């Protein structure tokens, strides 16, 4: 009896120290991936303990061989609970499995997957999904349906949840994010499909730049989400404008909250607006297609909706600038307005030069109530029925001198609700 008690005591001590068992659950939240490139990816997780943690990445699901990566050295010191890992030296267009090891424990229950992107500036076809407008802590079936389509990545165009509106400190924002990360269907999606995210009013914490908890909002977002290339990485409260490239497609993600002013002033501050202009000029000769991820709807009326229409002079000026500089191959992806909708460019005629005329796509809500405040649209809008979750799957085909884009709006049962396609020349 004494020997049995001694063994039990030693087992408890070993378990607390992270020694036994080797396949125990060691991660409290996550893991999830993002910031994926053709040869690298970032994984974030919150281990149960602060023992030495590593990331194991393998091209085989049984981890017969794997690469090991430690935590990144640039993890901010005020984020003691989160572990960030950067896997590098990977092969392009390669499916990999990953898991977290804490001490001697490997978490076999929370194995994740990601696929590295194809080589930049080489023709490649791929699929991605996007949507916005989610409630906190929900286990809606729409997330499982997104996963079943096997997208290369999932883009949240703002309002990942609604729990941060009015949050004032880091604890409030952390609780909001973990309401999502502890949700079964969302966590299952995030582990297996890399996440690309930006924010809008409900997950930024307020409507504009004057949010009292601005510093907490920025710090918490960086704590929980891995990013592609940030426009202003050195500034703790700098915009989360970001870019990434898939083959010959350059994605630009806009931050429409950090420098937003009252209606009629500026949606993007002067310094912030200079970034997408510079990116569009640089992409003009290199990338045939440049999707712009904008949480605020480009097609929206002057009043009654929180989109670009509340800043008509700024929208007109940007549209005129694009026409003046010959910017082509652009399309807008947004979710604000919470409907499925598309426009072929016929309603995109802002400014004094005839309008930029690029296609616009909108997808949402994931599981929130829908509205019809955006538009007008050439296709749609499709407003969700009670309990319906909506998202879009976008297939990009780069072949035979053109890049074609197929937008399909779906619900949580995989039922097709709206379809629109376009193509751009790709020399």
Blueprint of the fold:
Layout: H1 2-16, E1 27-34, E2 41-47, E3 53-58, E4 67-70, E5 83-87, E6 95-102, E7 105-106, E8 112-115, E9 126-131, H2 142-148, E10 154-157, H3 170-181, H4 184-192, E11 195-198, H5 201-204, H6 214-224, E12 229-230, E13 242-246, E14 249-253, H7 270-283, E15 290-293, H8 312-324, E16 330-334, E17 340-343, E18 360-362, E19 379-382, E20 390-399, E21 402-411, E22 416-425
Parallel strand pairs: 9-10, 10-11, 14-15, 15-16, 16-18
Antiparallel strand pairs: 1-2, 2-5, 3-4, 3-6, 6-7, 6-8, 9-20, 12-13, 13-14, 17-18, 17-19, 20-21, 21-22
Helix pairs in contact: 2-4, 3-6
Q: What would you say this structure looks like, in words?
A:
There is one protein chain. The protein has helices at 2-16, 142-148, 170-181, 184-192, 201-204, 214-224, 270-283, 312-324, and strands at 27-34, 41-47, 53-58, 67-70, 83-87, 95-102, 105-106, 112-115, 126-131, 154-157, 195-198, 229-230, 242-246, 249-253, 290-293, 330-334, 340-343, 360-362, 379-382, 390-399, 402-411, 416-425. It is an alpha+beta fold and 427 residues long. It folds into 2 domains: 22-115, Immunoglobulin-like, CATH 2.60.40; 126-425, 4-Layer Sandwich (Purple Acid Phosphatase, chain A, domain 2), CATH 3.60.21.70. Helix 2 packs parallel to helix 4 and helix 3 (170-181) runs parallel beside helix 6. The model is unreliable at 1-21 (pLDDT under 50).
